[in-house]
């Protein structure tokens, strides 16, 4: 693949999607008395970070090699590396897109916690941490950014208007703390065994010595940490409480973007760090993915709370992605990326639409008994919800159909017919709980007449996401092309390693 020399100013741009939100968060705290300036300034900073990341994507695409920034001009592996390869930029752009949508929803929300001085700064720190996770070339700094991500998410959940928010935040904090211990122990083991934390150099050392005594322990610990971060069954138990209690804007970001940290970790594990051990890791991902889609689908049907329905749905949808990663073919990896992008848009939109309908109620409850018939006051939200729920089930013309079609094509190409049969059952379950939610909220008559709020949450953010879901379903070529080329890069880790180490 042809590569071009990259100007130093372009490599410095890799830092901006991380630095801008941090600086913006500090300024937002200083402007605590000016809510409007603080809130719209937060949106401007998030949009600027997204535009810079998209420009990085264009540079990486044209240049044919990752952009690497070495702070302090310390060459890898001795210094800290920030690496914008196609996978990192793809995931960072997706995360920032969901963050922009979440901030936009918050601007039109009536939640009291939105006016807390720390709310918007914490959202920006969440965005900086997400981008840092995707761009860091150092496994210890991966831990640092994940910790920042966890702290921001915990506080945002704890300040929710919902009384269950603090309890859900505590659960999230303690289970995330366990994941952090696993991650830190794995990092320590890898450093003891190989004397290196730079992921590019570490990948080469592991490939040269795949029989180190404690390597298997490190892999298991990393695997468990990423399972917790993406709420992979059976380490999912913190997620439904958190998603149902956190502010709607935060839930959308958690479900759409933060849940993909584990997906990113599994991709790095199987295509860069542990290539020799990838077959065993992928086999485990397939088993866990199949278990997750069945458990998540059945649990989503059985719950009596709308947000919990889509929290359990996330467990199932992440299972689809894990299966694609587990198949491991270029087509399957491309499918995993398209599915990740599509699910992020759909799930964020569904969480926002559920929260918007709940905002009509004085109690803002998202239980089906409280939401029954309430959607009749918001027919536009019903149309958007129906489209998003059909997209989640893979009905055309939506991005969900494209991702499911690619998934089944990848399964046929990999001759995974037993898995495909279970995936078909899981898709039917998705239709069932999506239709159940729509019928209860928009179709059935309310049991009691309740007093409604004068100013429900706005529909601009979920509307934009649903439009994008349909647009991708009609014209999927740009996303598929990007995912296909990213999958090619994932299958050729020497490009990443040589770019970071300067070979």
Describe this structure in words.
With 503 residues, the protein is an all-alpha fold. The chain has a domain at 277-494. The chain is built from 22 helices and two strands. The chain has helices at residues 8-12, 16-30, 35-63, 86-107, 119-135, 139-158, 165-194, 199-208, 215-229, 239-245, 248-256, 261-273, 278-302, 306-327, 330-358, 368-371, 379-393, 399-413, 417-443, 460-474, 477-490, 493-501, and strands spanning 67-69, 82-84. A two-stranded antiparallel sheet has the order 1-2. The two termini are 15 Å apart. The model is unreliable at 1-6 (pLDDT under 50).
Supply the key terms.
single chain; about 500 residues; mainly alpha; two-stranded antiparallel sheet; 22 helices; about 75% helix; about 0% strand
Helix/strand structural class: mainly alpha
How would you describe the shape? globular
The main sheet comes to: 2 strands, antiparallel
Roughly what fraction of the amino acids lie in strands?
Answer: under 5%
Beta strands, count: 2
Classify the helix fraction into a percent range. Answer: over 70%
N-to-C terminal Cα separation, in Å? 15 Å
Please work out how many helical segments DSSP would assign: 22
């Amino acid at each position: 693949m042809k590569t071009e020399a990259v100007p130093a100013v372009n490599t410095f741009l890799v830092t901006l999607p991380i630095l801008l939100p941090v600086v913006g968060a500090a300024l937002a705290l200083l402007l605590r008395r000016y809510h409007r300036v603080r809130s719209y300034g937060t949106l401007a900073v998030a949009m600027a970070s997204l535009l810079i990341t998209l420009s990085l994507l264009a540079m990486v695409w044209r240049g044919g090699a990752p952009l690497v920034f070495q702070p302090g001009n310390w060459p890898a592996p001795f210094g800290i590396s920030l690496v914008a390869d196609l996978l990192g930029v793809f995931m960072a752009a997706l995360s920032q897109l969901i963050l922009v949508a979440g901030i936009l929803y918050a601007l039109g929300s009536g939640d009291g916690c939105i006016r807390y001085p720390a709310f918007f700064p914490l959202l920006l720190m969440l965005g900086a941490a997400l981008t840092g996770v995707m761009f860091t070339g150092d496994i210890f700094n991966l831990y640092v950014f994940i910790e920042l991500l966890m702290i921001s998410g915990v506080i945002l959940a704890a300040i929710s208007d919902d009384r269950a928010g603090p309890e859900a935040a505590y659960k999230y904090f303690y289970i995330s703390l366990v994941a952090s211990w696993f991650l830190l122990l794995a990092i320590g083991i890898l450093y003891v065994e190989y004397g290196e934390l730079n992921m590019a150099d570490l990948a080469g050392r592991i490939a040269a010595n795949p029989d180190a005594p404690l390597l298997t322990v490190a892999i298991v610990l990393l695997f468990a940490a990423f399972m917790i971060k993406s709420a992979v069954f059976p380490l999912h138990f913190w997620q439904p409480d958190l998603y149902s209690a956190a502010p709607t804007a935060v839930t959308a970001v958690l479900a759409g973007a933060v849940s993909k940290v584990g997906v990113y970790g599994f991709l790095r594990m199987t295509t860069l760090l542990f290539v020799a051990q990838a077959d065993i890791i992928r086999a485990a991902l397939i088993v866990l993915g199949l278990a997750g889609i069945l458990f998540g689908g059945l649990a989503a049907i059985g719950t009596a709370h709308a947000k919990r329905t889509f929290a359990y749905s996330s467990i199932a949808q992440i299972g689809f992605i894990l299966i694609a990663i587990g198949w491991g073919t270029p087509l399957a990896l491309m499918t995993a990326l398209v599915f990740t992008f599509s699910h992020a848009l759909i799930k964020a939109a569904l969480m926002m639409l559920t929260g918007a309908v709940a905002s009509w109620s004085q109690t803002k409850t998202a239980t089906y008994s409280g939401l029954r018939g309430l959607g009749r006051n918001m027919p536009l939200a019903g149309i958007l919800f129906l489209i998003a729920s059909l997209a989640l089930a893979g009905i055309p013309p939506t991005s969900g159909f494209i991702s499911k079609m690619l998934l089944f094509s990848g399964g046929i190409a990999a001759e995974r017919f037993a898995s495909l049969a279970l995936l078909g059952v899981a898709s039917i379950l998705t239709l069932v709980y999506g239709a159940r939610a729509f019928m209860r909220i928009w179709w059935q008559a309310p049991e009691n007449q309740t007093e409604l709020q004068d100013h429900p949450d706005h529909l601009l953010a979920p509307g934009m996401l649903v439009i994008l879901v349909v647009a991708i379903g009609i014209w999927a070529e740009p996303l598929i092309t990007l995912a296909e080329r990213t999958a090619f890069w994932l299958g050729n880790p020497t490009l990443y390693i040589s770019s970071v180490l300067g070979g």
